[in-house]
Amino acid sequence: MLPRAKKQFGQHFLTDRHYIDRIVTAIAPKTEDVMIEIGPGPGALTAPLLEKLSHLHAVEIDRDLGAALRTRFSPEKFSLHEQDVLAFDFAVLASRFRCVGNLPYNISTPFLFHLGEFADELIDATFMLQKEVVDRMVAGPGTPDYGRLSVMLQYRFSMARLFVVPPGAFTPPPKVDSAIVHMTPLPANRPTADDNVRFAAMVTAGFGQRRKTLGNTLKPFISATQISACDIDPARRAETLSVTEFIRLSNVKV
User: Fold this and answer.
1) What pLDDT score was predicted for residue 80?
2) Is residue 222 a contact partner of residue 254, using CB atoms and an 8 Å limit?
3) Is it true that the peptide bond before 172 is cis, omega within 30 degrees of 0?
């Protein structure tokens, strides 16, 4: 019997065996992997993952679910960390790890930014999120879904949407479709900003008023003349810029 989903945690429990199997196949766990599951809930993914892994770490904030998981799975194979994943220090578990999970809709974006801080230690991640969020994550310049989330994640990760999971696969069913996304950190020799804080601030400013031109939105950081010197028209809008172009603007010396 499934536990009652708690609204404050944004819980929707995956119950459809077909999609559970598809997700595990997409993750392709190997025995020796150091893997961390986010929000295991009642353990729909936990159980099949443990059939393939020698050990699994899980982060769960709901203490009622945590107690049930501790009873169900052996501590020799399963380590539960009962805390808020937005404050979780992934680096304390291993120098290299993989991450999976059915992310609660209400924390998905802040969690993705938090995980980005550990990109150097992350091997890859496979997550289920609201389809709308996944579409924004993988969107390209000039498309309606392209925005701050797209740029900030594509700065650190290569991402692909794998498949859609319908509401009926969950209990209780959400009001929207979900989707599976696979994320792989980009190599160390990728284009990078000289100052990540400045880069993030410029991206935020650029998309803060989408209808305004770069010459206006980026005025606190860089002049229209400097934008032109980067071979970028200051009359363009942020939604047309590639990640590399944002990096170029961020690296202008002021």
Assistant:
1) 95
2) yes
3) yes
